[in-house]
Amino acid sequence: MAKTTKKRIIVSVTSDLVSDNRVHKVCTSLLKMGFDVLLVGRKKRDSLPLQSRKYKTRRFKLLFEKGPFFYVCFNLRLFCFLFFSKTDVLLANDLDTLPANFLASKIKGKSLVYDSHEYFTEVPELINRPQIQKIWKQLEQKIVPKIKYAYTVCNSIAQIYSEKYGTAFKVVRNVPFAGSVSANSLKGNNGKTVLYQGAVNVGRGLKQAILAMEEMEGVKLIIAGDGDIKPELEKLVREKKLENKIQFTGRLSIEELSKITPQADLGLSIEEDMGLNYRFALPNKLFDYIQAQVPVLVSDLPEMAAIVKQYKIGEITSSLEPEFLAKKIKKVLFDKDAEKVRRKNLTTAAKELTWEKEEKVLHDIFKNFL
Known about the structure:
This protein is α/β, with parallel strands linked by helices. The protein has two domains: 8-175 and 355-369, 3-Layer(aba) Sandwich (Rossmann fold), CATH 3.40.50.2000; 192-352, 3-Layer(aba) Sandwich (Rossmann fold). It has helices at 21-33, 67-84, 98-108, 124-127, 130-143, 155-165, 206-212, 230-239, 254-260, 276-279, 284-291, 302-311, 322-334, 336-352, 355-366; strands at 8-12, 36-42, 56-60, 89-93, 111-116, 149-152, 169-171, 192-197, 219-224, 246-248, 266-269, 296-299, 314-317. The chain has a seven-stranded parallel sheet, with helices on both faces. The longest helix is centred in the first third of the chain and has 18 residues, at 67-84. The chain crosses the membrane at residues 63-84. This is Glycosyltransferase.
């Protein structure tokens, strides 16, 4: 009996793959479905070593690491790679990989799927640069209406894209694998720990969180991640003499982060309302906190607030003013009666918000190619 050849799917993203949890989960699900999976990204000068994955990976080394030249070079390199590679399906992650994938899919006559991790053209970095934003919007307007299979991270963004371009976007939220982050019943024995994990970029409420620590005693803030404003935040910590209250871990792998998250007594997801992308944010970190059964403090933005209201697993803050933020943090950390209720609710939420349930949407999309 002839051996059945697996369908090959090439997944591409502009990250260096080390901490891109969403892409890792999608690739794992595709592998489980029976695809031969190759994940393509880039390797930066300071990239951490990539730990072994069950699927194949490849990282491009490029001359430019940011700015317009990076995006042009990456897409040219990616297009050439896709054009000369054997594949059955292409999966583009975010708008910055879509041009190369779309062109290759048309020339080679291969199926294309689009995963939009965010409302790309409305990120703060583009809102303040209208000419660059205009270029990305034009690319989106030309390509997205021609895509048949697409999904994104939340209902709000899916609705916007569907109404704007007539492309039906399904929703695959950034929830973790069940049990991927274990709850820790011993946390808080040596003081309280507040955790922010994720990109250290503008609009994440991190400056306000640091200033709120001036109001705290017996509380430590851990900022686990890296990004453009990390040097600025480190300078602020030194100026305010808060070195004993705030720790920067730098960038961590998925595996390293899963060990830190359960140690926290509170997880922060306090994005500022800086454009539609942040307004409709539903980030990985929120669901990672929940899986680790860590209570959360989130901004009063619709998608995140809806999760907190539904499961009653933390607090919603209407202001990021440091003194107000400090009061909200204290309320979560030191209200013993509310803690008992949250602990029970977090157990329920952690069981319901799992990748094993969410990946059913992926199965509905990718079964078309098996």
